[in-house]
Structures are given as C-alpha cells and as structure tokens.
C-alpha cells in the first residue's frame, strides 16, 4: 500500500486484509478526530475488516511552521481545531492517486497506480481541466452573485489558501508512530476480534460499553508493555463522553530541540461494525437502560423513558465508516465542500465551539456532517436544502441560515426519515440523519444549542450588513473570552456529581431553575463545567481539581435586568399562584397595584450597596433550590466594572439638569424685548448628552463648577453686519441684552458675560453664564451662520498674508466644531443613549479610563464618545453590549486593534451613514496621510455620518506619541484580560504606571475635582459657606488647567504634559526628543546648559536645562504644587 503523509489531524489507516476475511468481526477500531468520528472528508477508513485506524492530531505548538501565515490573519491557536480537513492541500499528481487515499482506498483498487501506467496521466490532465473550469465558474458566481466586493472574495480565498493543511516534520514523526502502533496492536494476542464477541442484547444496559472498555484496556496493556519511554499512553474520554473512553498516544521529547517537531497526538478509538445492532432498537424514542427485573416484559419496557443520549452514543460507534463515506462523497460531488468545511471550522474555532461536551457538542464533524447530509438528503418529499453548485461561501452562509432560523429543539429536522418519533427533548436539538439512523446533534445541550443559534444569527447579521463586509469579525476575531462575551458570570464551586446520569444531566436542573426564575431579564444562559482530562493507563482516573464547579454565564436584557418588581400570576389563578409560591417560597408576596389587580409579586433591592438585582435573584434561587452553602460559595464576575462609577448608572441622574435646560429654553423663548426671533437653542456639552464623567448634582447651596454649553441661534436678518469683527461685537451686545432680560425677569437667576479668544478677533469672543438657584449652570454662545461664508471668503482671499489665512482656517475649523458639529453630536448622543441604555455609563467608564491614565487632556470628549459609540452602533462580532463590563472591555478591544496610521475610525452616529459617505471619508483620510505623512498634525482620523471631515476632534491633538500611548495601554489591558481572565481585578485596569514618565509633579491635596481648591473644614458662618459655594466667578475656572496651559505655552517645545482633567492629583511629563544634545545656536526655544563635545572640536554643545525648567515649573505652581519627582534625567 502506498502511504500518504497526513495533513493536520489527518487519519491514516494501515493495510486491511481481504474484505472477505472476518467481515463480521465484532470490533473495528475507527479513526476519529477529537471532535467526533469521521470529521474529515476524504479521510481513510479501515473498511469493515478487523483493522483499526488512529487519529493523528497535534497540539497548538505544532503551528510553528505556519506562524508567518497565521500571523497575517491574527487567528489565535490556529491549528488546534482548524486544520483537520483530510485531503485538502495535498499534492496528488492525479485524480487516481487522490482516490487511492480516500475512504475506499483499501477496498477499491489498491494497486491501481501500478497497473494504469500512462493512462493515469491522461486521466490526471482531464481531471485537472475539469477542476479548473469548475473553479473558474464558481469564482464568477462568487463575485457576481454572492460577495459584496471583490476584496471580500480575495480575503476569503487567501484565508483558505493559508488554512489548508500542509505536510511538515510533525506529520512525518506521527506517520512513523502510526505504523509502529499498527504493528504492535496486530501482535497483541487478546485483541484479535471474533464475530461472536457480541450478543443480540448487548445494546442494553451498558453491555456493549463494558466490552468496549475491556477491549480498549487490552490494547492499552499491550501498548504499554511493548513500548518504551519515548511515548506517553493515557486514557481519555472522546468528546467528554464517559461512555466512550479512548487511548491517547503522545511523544515524550528527549530534548528541547525535539519538542517542536514531536507535538502530535494519536487517538485510538474503538468502534463496532455497522449493523451489529438493529438500527430500530436504537431510535431516539427507545429505552435501552432497563431495570434488572424488567426482562422482555413489553408493558414494563414501554413504560420506561427513552434514552436518546445512550442510544445515539452507541449508534455513533457503529457509523464511523458510513460517515467517512458520506463526507468523502460530499467532497467528490461538491467542489466547494472542503473549503466550506474549512470556513465552518475557522468560524467555530473563533467562538470556541467544538464537539466536546464542554465546548458545546457542536464542532468540526457536526458542521461537515450537516452540510453533507443536507447536500444528499431530502427534507420530507422536497429537494436537498443545499445544492452541489454552491460556492464555499454560499454553503457556509446557507448552513448558518439553517442553524439560525430552524429551531431544531421544537421542530426536529428529519432528513430521509419517515415515521420517526422524536421524544420531548427539553430544549435539546435533533437533526436526524435517516440514512444512518443517527441524531448528529445528540451531544448538544439546550443552552449550547441556544448559544450556537445566537452566534449564527449574529454572524448572518454582520455578513448581511450593507456598509461593511465584516470579514475580520466573521473569521479573524476571537470572540470566546467570557468577559467580552457575557454580561455576568456566576462560579458555583460546590455542585455535586450524581453518577452515570450526571454525564448527561448534571447541569439540567441548574438550567431548569435559572431561566424560570430570571425570565425575560436574560437573553441567554449557558451552563458549563470543566472538561475531563486524560489519565495514565496505570492509574485510576483522577478528576481534575474543580471538576464539580459549574459556571453559569448570562447575556442579559438591559431593558428588564434591573427591574425592581416582578409580577406573578393573579391571586384568582389558584393553580398558577400555588406553583409560583412553591418555586419562590417566602420571597413571593401578594400585592395590590394601582390598577386594582392583586398579583403574586417579588420585590428586589436597588440600593447602591446591595448586589445587583440579577445577582440577588441568582443567589436566592441557588439557596432555595440547591442549599445555602451553594449560594454562599457562589462568586459573581462582571458587576465590578459598574461599581467603578459613582452613584446609579442610568439616565435618571442627568434628568434634573435636562429639566433645568428645558426651563432655560422656555425662559429665553418667553422673553420679550429680544432684538431677533430665536431659531434654535441647542445643547452642546456632554453634561446634556448623558455622557459626562462627572454627574451634575444640583443644589441651592453650591452651583455647578463646570457649565453646560448651549448654542443659541437667531433667525436670519439683514441687520447683522457683514464683517467678522463686527459680528463678534454684535454677539457681545446681544448677550448683554439677554443678561439684562434675565435680571429683569427676577427669577432668581445670576448672569455673567465673559470674554474669550481675546487675541483672535475673528474667533468667537463672548459667552453668557446663566446660573439658576437650583445650581444648574449654563454657558450660552451665539451662532450666526453668516460667519462660515465670511470665513470661507477670507480663506480664499489670495491677497492676505499666509499668517492671516492660517488664522482664518483655524477660525473656520473652530466655528464648525463649536457651532455645527458639537450640537449635532450632542443631539445624536441623546438619541443613542435612550436607545442603548448602557451607552451612557459605558462612555463615562471609558472616559474614566482615559482620565486615570492621564490622557483626558489630549482627547476631546467627543472623540472618546465616538470610540465608545462604535461598540454599540457597529458591535460585530458581538451584538450590542448589554452590560457596562462588555461595553467597556469591547471598546478597549476595538481600540487596541485600531491601526490608526492606516485606517480611519468610522462611526454610524446618526444612523444615516451611506456607502458614498464611507468612500468620501476614506478619500479624505488618504489625502491627509499624503499631506501629513509624519502625522505631526493629524494622528487620529475619526469621522461619522454627521462629520465626514474626520478631523473635527483630532486636529492638533492627540499628538502621535499620545495616540501610541493610548494604543499601548489598550493592548496591555487586553493582554492582561487574556492572561488573568476571570481573576482580573477591574480596578487594576485604571492604575496608570507613573514610572513611564520622565517626571511627575504632585498637585496639592487642597485642590480637588477639576482642580478647584477645596474649602477648609474649619467651622464658618453658614451664610459665608453658601456665599463661597455660589460664587459665579468660579464657574468654569480650573487653576490646574490654567497652570498646565501656562507651562505648555512656555515650554511646549520641550515637554509634553499629562494629567487627569477630572481629578488632577499629579501632572506627568515627557521630555521632547527634539531636546537631545545638539550644537549651540542662538534663539533656542528652551533653556540650555553647555555640554562637553565628544568630538573635541571647538564647537560648543548644549543640553536642555532639565533641572532649571523643573524648578521654574514648580515656582510657577506655587501653592498648587506639593513637589516634583524625577524618574529619568
């Protein structure tokens, strides 16, 4: 026999004797992947002889030879589950050679190549021509009918090219071991199977499985005695199924140099010949585990519950060859089948879905088998659901469509099966393959099936999006980190195992209780336990530590998760009310509501110090149904992120200020004596879009120190001057008039007109602060649309000197930012925050992260808001976040992956983004990169459907080094999340390493929020306290910010400062690289000291005078500064 080296996880079979020999042998050992039997198309089979097959599989370390390829796509752990498509990527010289290594290699013409001679080459040429023409036709249909763009097709094709298996050193070592194991097993005396090994009733009461285990033990003993220390032999469970033990053979590297080439794994999996037990005896509605005294009593047997899991497990052991033939047939009749399997496997791996029960029970084999069955088998009297003419992407998408839209738990999918009875499944899915009388999805639980459908729906939605192909989200990004995937995690450490039934049903009771108790508060619940681990053949099975631990993971419904009162059945519904009280016990109580109804009810605490509502419910249910010890030992993960924000996280805390803004609008519109009619009054500040980090607390004892910006626009009038400077003077007059009208109204309002941009007369020059007795404070600026026309005209005036034109450009940018973009941005955020209830607290937490790392002074609040909104508006590969934790961590995830040097950040902020808008944004981005290749002015480019310019919030800042700092911190957070996972302390992500800076200036503790000086705790007269708290002259004043601005003005070319704008306790600094040692010259922009010249020339070198500058920085601060700490000189 010609042996073919295996590709990744490829099965290899030794030669099989004549098929007439032992054709009815009782045991045939079939190859299988770790996922399940026969998951690879085109794999070899041992036929029906007495031979065996083994499964070659390698660990993730074996990907060394392909690291460069996989790195291009950022696919983690690429070869662990994804490179198992036997026969793909193999270099067969002709079609006959490929046939000789398929499932029928041993039974069909084993010596064909030696006999065919030259005719084989002719066949090869024609076969290659057929394949090429077929591929070209499929490619044409791809682009014309399936893909949104040629780029998507190219990405898919390139991905498939990289992921097809290739032969390497690992495969060579594994192949040699396969032949060695074959020889050893054939020489084991007790492992010669005979046709009489099984009896007719061995399918009952675990008899088959006992014999299977004994047979496997004989093989293990023989292998152990015949091998040396160069291999490690252990037992394991196939797919975590305790009914299917297997032997695992792995090498033991002699030295470190061999470790990379010796990381493979061979599974030896026993199987039974097809037909050994009647298929009708193992149907899902039959019982095969019966009481000892039942005998053949039909009445007793018919009254026993069905055992579908047991039956399907036994049936699976007899169908290995049949499924290998099915998959090989699919790969022969459908050209794109193998590539569709690869796409499915990549998709599954990125979501940590696999055939092991601990991974959900749906893996590579299930994906390949479902496609093969639906390609060949009809549903009822109709045609097959999948067509052989589909492309690989069409097959992939059609399979997802079936998984997403067909609920196989309530409507079992029967393929080529008539008159089959499916018993109630309690949420477990059924896809019954009638030709092989087997439920392909028998390993799936109710919750893993819901998770699979959830992921399939999400992927279909992202692939159906019109604005983006979402290739990376579908195939590249790993979405399996539980803290990014779920909103809440409950670890239950003490939940006992109850014997055989626990292998199938140990989690069912937990799942039956929690969904009933949580109801519509949750969208998805999954229950998982650690998978089994292999154990040495010479020892008893050692369960891993924590095997009894259960992990329950929740995706919540944000609309209902924090509801404080649950309504049960009416008191008049006696039966339902009794069931409700039985389930909830003493927690249930009768309540009368305003509409007169009397209902069973549950009331939960919403206080700031208590557990969240969902945690209270889970804890109560665990205590009532599983014991107090279980409840007390349970730990929750996920709510710690919400606690990092002070106070409640909803929109209600902003409502008093929003009502005050409505009062301001009514007051202005109701004023008589205004020179012009009011057109619009627009909010222009994060305080009015629910997104400010600091929550506005209104009190008549203290006014808001940070005013909320408001834009006031009058109706058009010819009385406005046509000169920019005169317009600014007119604005001042209008604000003075508005101030006097407020004072005349006598409503307890304090007003104050302020000036800004005093040295730039064409910029906005004035504002009006309005302070209400409630403490609400607003800063009004007037918007006049004629300014834009005049600034555009000034900018195009070639008679102006360059400096004047640059000033006009800056004024135009400031006008668009403050009077056009800001109001539109704030209004869009108001709508989004009411649509996504978790958006507001998530933005606030992301702002806290920027502030904690001293970056907030360099990032406009609107830019941080755009970074966060994308997580909700364009959430793929997940759905929109439904908790603060997932919103925050996913935002950091997206930021860490953003290559801002090469890609713009595009957000569908207003919901009106079009394809042509994206094209415009990309054109502008490319233009800026050509104009400013060094990124000195525009480092980040962030655009939206209401701001196609992309530079409104990033013009001039952040600097390139600050943007790189943001990315580095986000990546560090993600690395920490991957390393620590559930052990990660949320607060640790908000600790900034000050040692990264060159020096740190410590701000005096007397200055608190926004850098304003704290009031002394010494007793004062009450009226003086109130007067100090209501000093309108302090509105908008921050001494720390003024100090930093002054230092940057004086030493901006030498230092770059970082501080927390919300609570500035330190000011950190970096020395500019342009201040390195250099030759002396006049008019240097910073203080210097002479330095020794290394070349001993007569020229004098100078160094920046760091000590002098730091001393001057401390002197400028005065009482504001406590001291200066130098990390590097």
Give me a quick take on this structure.
It is built from 34 helices and 32 strands. The chain has 1129 residues and is of the alpha+beta class. Residues 1-128, 135-144, 496-504 and 1015-1028 have low confidence and may be disordered.
What do you see in this structure?
The protein is 39% helix and 13% strand. The strands form 9 sheets. Strands 1-3-6-5-4-13 form a 6-stranded antiparallel sheet, with helices on one face. A 5-stranded mixed sheet has the order 19-20-23-22-21, with helices on both faces. The radius of gyration is 36 Å and the shape is globular. Mean pLDDT is 82; it is low at 1-128, 135-144, 496-504 and 1015-1028.
Strand content: 5-15%
Could you describe the largest sheet, including whether it forms a barrel? 6 strands, antiparallel
Low-confidence stretches: 1-128, 135-144, 496-504, 1015-1028
Q: pLDDT average, as an integer?
A: 82
Rg on CA atoms, Å:
36 Å
The structure class reads alpha+beta
The overall strand count is: 32
- C-alpha end-to-end distance: 73 Å
List the strand order in the largest sheet. Answer: 1-3-6-5-4-13
Structure annotation, total helices: 34
The residue fraction in helices comes out at 25-40%
Task: Give the overall form.
Answer: globular
């Amino acid at each position: 026999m010609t042996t073919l080296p295996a590709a990744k996880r490829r099965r290899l079979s030794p030669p099989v004797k004549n098929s007439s020999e032992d054709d009815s042998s009782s045991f045939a050992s079939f190859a299988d992947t770790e996922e399940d039997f026969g998951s690879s198309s085109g794999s070899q089979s041992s036929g029906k002889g007495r031979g065996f097959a083994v499964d070659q599989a390698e660990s993730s370390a074996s990907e060394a030879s392909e690291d460069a390829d996989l790195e291009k796509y950022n696919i983690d752990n690429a070869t662990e589950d994804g490179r198992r498509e036997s026969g793909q990527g193999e270099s067969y010289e002709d079609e006959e050679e490929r046939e000789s290594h398929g499932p029928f290699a041993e039974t069909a013409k084993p010596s064909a190549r030696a006999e065919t001679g030259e005719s084989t080459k002719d066949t090869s040429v024609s076969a290659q021509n057929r394949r090429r023409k077929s591929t070209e036709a499929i490619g044409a249909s791809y682009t014309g009918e399936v893909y949104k763009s040629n780029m998507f097709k190219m990405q898919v094709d390139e991905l498939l090219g990289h992921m097809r298996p290739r032969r390497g050193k690992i495969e060579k070592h594994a192949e040699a071991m396969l032949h060695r194991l074959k020889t050893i097993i054939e020489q084991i005396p007790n492992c010669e199977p005979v046709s009489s090994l099984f009896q007719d009733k061995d399918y009952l009461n675990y008899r088959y499985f006992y014999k299977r285990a004994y047979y496997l033990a004989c093989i293990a003993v023989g292998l152990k005695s015949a091998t040396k220390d160069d291999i490690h032999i252990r037992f394991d469970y196939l797919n975590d199924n305790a009914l299917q033990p297997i032997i695992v053979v792995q090498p033991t590297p002699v030295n470190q140099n061999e470790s990379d080439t010796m990381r493979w794994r061979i599974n030896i999996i026993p199987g039974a010949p097809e037909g050994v037990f009647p298929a009708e005896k193992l149907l899902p509605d039959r019982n095969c585990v019966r009481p000892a005294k039942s005998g053949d009593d039909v009445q007793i047997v018919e009254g026993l519950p069905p055992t579908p899991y047991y039956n399907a497990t036994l049936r699976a052991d007899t169908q290995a060859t049949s499924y290998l033939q099915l998959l090989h047939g699919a790969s022969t009749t459908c050209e794109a089948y193998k590539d569709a399997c690869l796409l499915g496997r990549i998709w599954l791996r990125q979501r940590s879905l696999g055939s092991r029960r601990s991974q959900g029970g749906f893996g590579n084999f299930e994906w390949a088998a479902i496609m093969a069955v639906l390609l060949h088998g009809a549903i009822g009297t109709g045609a097959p659901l999948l067509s052989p003419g589909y492309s690989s992407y069409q097959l992939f998408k059609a399979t997802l469509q079936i998984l997403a839209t067909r609920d196989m738990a309530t409507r079992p999918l029967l393929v080529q099966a008539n008159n089959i009875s499916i018993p109630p499944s309690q949420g477990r899915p059924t896809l019954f393959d009638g030709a092989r009388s087997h439920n392909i999805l028998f390993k799936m639980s109710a919750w893993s099936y819901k998770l699979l459908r959830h992921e399939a729906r999400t992927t279909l939605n992202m692939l159906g999006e019109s604005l983006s192909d979402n290739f990376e989200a579908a195939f590249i990004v790993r979405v399996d980190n539980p803290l990014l995937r779920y909103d809440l995690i409950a670890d239950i450490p003490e939940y006992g195992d109850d014997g055989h039934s626990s292998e199938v049903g140990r989690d069912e009771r937990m799942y039956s209780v929690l969904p009933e108790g949580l109801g519509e508060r949750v969208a998805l619940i999954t229950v998982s336990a650690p998978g089994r681990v292999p154990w040495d053949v010479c020892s008893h099975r050692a369960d891993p530590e924590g095997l009894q631990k259960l992990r329950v993971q929740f995706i919540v419904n944000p609309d209902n998760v924090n509801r404080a009162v649950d309504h049960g059945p009416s008191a008049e519904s006696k039966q339902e009310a009794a069931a409700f009280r039985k389930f909830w016990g003493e927690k249930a109580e009768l309540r009368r509501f305003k509409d007169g109804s009397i209902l069973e009810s549950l009331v939960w605490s919403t206080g700031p110090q208590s557990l969240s509502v969902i945690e209270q419910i889970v804890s109560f249910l665990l205590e009532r149904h599983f014991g107090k010890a279980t409840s007390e030992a349970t730990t929750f993960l996920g709510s710690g992120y919400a606690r990092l924000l002070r106070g409640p996280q909803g929109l209600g805390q902003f409502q008093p200020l929003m009502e005050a803004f409505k009062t301001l609008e009514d007051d202005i519109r109701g004023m008589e004596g205004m020179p012009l009619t009011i057109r619009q009054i627009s909010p222009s500040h994060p305080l009015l879009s629910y997104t400010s980090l600091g929550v506005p607390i209104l009190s008549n004892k203290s006014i808001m120190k940070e005013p909320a910006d408001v834009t006031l626009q009058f109706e058009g009038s010819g009385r406005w001057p046509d000169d920019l400077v005169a317009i600014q003077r007119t604005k001042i007059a209008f604000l003075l008039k508005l101030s006097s009208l407020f004072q005349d109204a006598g409503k307890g309002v304090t007003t104050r007109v302020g000036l800004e941009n005093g040295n730039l007369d064409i910029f906005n020059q004035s504002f009006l602060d309005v302070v209400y007795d409630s403490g609400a404070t607003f800063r009004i600026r007037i918007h006049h649309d004629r300014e834009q026309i005049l600034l555009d005209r000034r900018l195009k005036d070639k008679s102006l000197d360059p400096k004047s034109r640059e000033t006009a450009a800056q004024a135009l940018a400031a006008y668009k930012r403050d009077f056009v973009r800001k109001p539109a941005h704030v209004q869009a955020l108001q709508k989004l925050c009411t649509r996504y209830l978790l958006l507001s607290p998530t933005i606030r937490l992301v702002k806290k992260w920027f502030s904690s790392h001293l970056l907030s002074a360099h990032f406009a609040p609107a830019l941080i808001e755009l970074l966060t909104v994308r997580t909700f508006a364009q959430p793929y590969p997940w759905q929109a976040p439904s908790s603060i934790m997932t919103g925050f961590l996913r935002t950091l995830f997206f930021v860490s992956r953003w290559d801002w040097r090469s890609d713009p950040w595009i957000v569908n902020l207003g919901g009106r983004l079009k394809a042509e808008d994206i094209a415009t944004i990309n054109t502008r981005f490319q233009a800026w990169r050509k104009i400013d290749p060094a990124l000195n002015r525009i480092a980040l480019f962030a655009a939206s459907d209401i701001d196609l310019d992309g530079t409104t919030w990033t013009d001039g800042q952040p600097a390139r080094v600050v943007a790189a700092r943001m990315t580095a911190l986000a990546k560090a957070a993600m690395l920490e999340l991957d390393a620590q996972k559930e052990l990660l302390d949320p607060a640790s992500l908000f600790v900034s390493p000050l040692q990264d800076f060159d020096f740190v200036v410590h701000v005096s503790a007397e200055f608190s929020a926004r850098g304003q000086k704290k009031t002394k705790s010494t007793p004062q007269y009450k009226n003086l306290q109130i007067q100090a708290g209501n000093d309108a002259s302090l509105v908008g004043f921050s001494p720390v910010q003024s100090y930093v601005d002054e230092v940057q003005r004086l030493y901006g070319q030498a230092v770059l400062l970082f501080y927390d704008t919300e609570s500035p306790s330190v000011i950190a600094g970096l020395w500019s690289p342009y201040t390195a040692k250099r030759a002396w010259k006049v008019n240097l922009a910073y203080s210097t000291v002479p330095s020794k010249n290394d070349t001993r020339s007569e020229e004098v070198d100078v160094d920046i005078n760091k000590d002098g500058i730091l001393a001057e920085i401390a002197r400028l601060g005065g009482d504001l500064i406590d001291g200066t700490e130098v990390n590097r000189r």
